[in-house]
């Protein structure tokens, strides 16, 4: 008996992973639908609407303040312009709307049926859509699909404490009104650290509170300490081992009390203390889809859940929360379900040597193992390190410094960790990630000619290892 389904693939979630999977599957000839609650946001998910893209645009904006100051050392004279928060917000919103349209056109141009609806599971092959009718009344539709892909991403998590109702999360900060003259950022991860740098650059008095011993847990320890010191030098008031007790509203703003009794006053308090998988009310429990401790969907190496027809990719699986990872995982699913593109081998996804950047000021670029993780995995490692003032700052007047670091497996001579704090770190590290993915050794780095004068050349000119 042959079962007929409405769709070959139904994708729940219109973020980077979901859109990529839907579009590529449709191009393979599959009948594909995608559901996303568009609301105030459009297609593109967290990254496009309230994540990577607007955050990077605001990071660019923040850099202009220091650039105006630094220009005087290069002969530029006159007062720097004033910052207009409303203009930045409006221009960002316009660009995001444009990107939403691009995503929609790509999907519909590929033949994907797009539903503006909240989707939940009714069975191993069943999807229910909660929609709005033309008159605004609630609507309901049900469909069947041979395969279902969940790509609903994550959402900011705020712990329960007295005053929780007074805080904002990263989703809210792009359109905050008015501009906060005093901003408290709670958290020590990359989102908290990036926004602390951004709003400090835009002119706010920023206090960052983190209950741990140092920000950016999981990164190389030397990188963490170095970038924290540079952020403080740039004006961020960083408090470590500083847990929040409560937040109260007063006539002078928000009163933040820390463990130990310290008080900080703020116009806004941003909580960036982690994200959790976005799985609420999706019907996972009723269908029997296995979940982890934080609600994340448990998948195997093929991104398949314990319900064989249901797959999941991206942040909702709580593996590596990066947009390019979700894109790569989506392509693995499409290739295994509908075959690879003509002339191409099926995709596979490796989680070793994933490059990433943190857009603090200065920024971080990193790929591979931290020094401590490399010692645990490989045993004996050789470390190469260089710290210097970038050529630009010999005239700019800035005291910002750059740090570069290589971690080499002594047994194989392979470069297994590459880390940088400095201008355009992400742009520089991306190219080196290709070499490291290919297994480049320190000898290969040493034999590579540098581009002079650049900061990047330092990675191929480090000859003297750090003494143990």
Describe this structure in words.
- With 468 residues, this protein is α/β, with parallel strands linked by helices.
- It folds into three domains: 7-155 and 277-338, FAD/NAD(P)-binding domain (3-Layer(bba) Sandwich), CATH 3.50.50; 158-273, FAD/NAD(P)-binding domain, CATH 3.50.50; 356-460, 2-Layer Sandwich (Enolase-like, domain 1), CATH 3.30.390.30.
- The chain has helices spanning 16-27, 45-50, 52-70, 85-109, 170-173, 190-202, 221-234, 284-287, 323-338, 371-378, 393-396, 425-437, 442-447, and strands at residues 7-12, 32-36, 113-116, 118-121, 126-132, 138-150, 154-156, 182-186, 205-210, 237-240, 244-250, 253-258, 263-266, 268-271, 275-277, 310-312, 356-358, 364-368, 381-388, 402-409, 415-421.
- α1 runs parallel beside α9 (323-338) and α3 (52-70) packs across α6 (190-202).
- The termini are far apart.
Largest beta-sheet characterization? 7 strands, mixed
Q: Low-confidence spans: pLDDT under 50, at least 5 residues?
A: none
Proportion of residues in β-strands: 15-25%
In one word, what is the shape? Answer: globular
Mean pLDDT: 96
CATH homologous superfamily classification of the largest domain: FAD/NAD(P)-binding domain
Report the oligomer: single chain
Q: Kindly state the number of beta strands.
A: 21
Structural class of the secondary structure composition?
Answer: alpha/beta
Helical content band: 25-40%
Radius of gyration: 24 Å
Number of domains: 3
CATH topology (level 3) name of the largest domain: FAD/NAD(P)-binding domain
Task: Please give the count of helices.
Answer: 13
């Amino acid at each position: 008996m042959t079962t007929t389904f409405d769709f070959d693939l139904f994708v729940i979630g219109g973020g980077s992973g979901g859109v990529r999977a839907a579009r590529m599957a449709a191009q393979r000839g599959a009948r594909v639908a995608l559901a996303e609650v568009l609301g105030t946001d459009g297609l593109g998910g967290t990254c496009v609407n309230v994540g990577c893209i607007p955050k990077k645009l605001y990071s660019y904006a923040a850099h202009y303040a220091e650039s105006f100051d630094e220009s005087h050392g290069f002969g530029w004279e006159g007062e720097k312009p004033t910052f207009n928060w409303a203009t930045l917000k409006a221009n960002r919103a316009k660009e995001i709307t444009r990107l939403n349209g691009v995503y929609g056109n790509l999907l519909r141009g590929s033949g994907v049926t797009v539903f503006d609806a909240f989707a939940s599971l009714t069975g191993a092959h069943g999807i229910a859509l909660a929609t709005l009718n033309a008159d605004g009344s609630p609507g309901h539709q049900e469909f069947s699909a041979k395969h279902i892909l969940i790509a609903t991403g994550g959402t900011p998590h705020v712990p329960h404490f007295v005053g929780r109702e007074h805080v904002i999360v990263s989703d809210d900060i792009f359109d905050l009104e008015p501009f906060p003259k005093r901003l408290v950022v709670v958290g020590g991860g990359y989102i908290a650290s990036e926004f602390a740098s951004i709003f400090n650059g835009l002119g706010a008095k920023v206090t960052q509170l983190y209950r741990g011993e140092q920000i950016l847990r999981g990164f190389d320890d030397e990188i963490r300490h170095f970038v924290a010191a540079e952020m403080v030098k740039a004006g961020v008031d960083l408090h470590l081992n500083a847990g929040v007790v409560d937040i109260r509203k007063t006539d002078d703003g928000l009163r933040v009390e820390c463990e130990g009794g310290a008080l900080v006053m703020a116009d806004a308090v941003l909580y960036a203390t982690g994200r959790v998988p976005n799985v609420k009310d999706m019907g996972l429990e009723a269908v029997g889809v296995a979940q982890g401790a934080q609600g994340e969907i448990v998948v195997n190496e093929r991104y398949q859940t314990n319900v064989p027809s249901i797959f999941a990719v991206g942040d909702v699986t709580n593996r590596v929360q990066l947009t390019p990872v979700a894109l790569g995982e989506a392509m693995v699913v499409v290739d295994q379900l509908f075959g690879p593109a003509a002339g191409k081998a099926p995709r596979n996804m490796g989680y070793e040597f994933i490059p990433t950047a943190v857009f603090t000021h200065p920024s971080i670029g990193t790929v591979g193992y931290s020094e401590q993780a490399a010692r645990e995995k490989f045993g004996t490692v050789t470390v190469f390190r260089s710290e210097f003032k970038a050529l630009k700052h010999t005239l700019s007047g800035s005291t910002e410094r750059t740090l570069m670091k290589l971690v080499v497996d002594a047994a194989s001579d392979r470069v297994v960790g590459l880390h940088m704090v400095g201008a355009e770190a992400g742009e520089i590290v991306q190219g080196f990630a290709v070499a490291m993915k290919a297994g480049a050794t320190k000898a290969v780095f040493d034999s590579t000619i540098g581009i002079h004068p650049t900061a990047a050349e330092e990675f191929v000119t480090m000859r003297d290892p750090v003494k143990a």
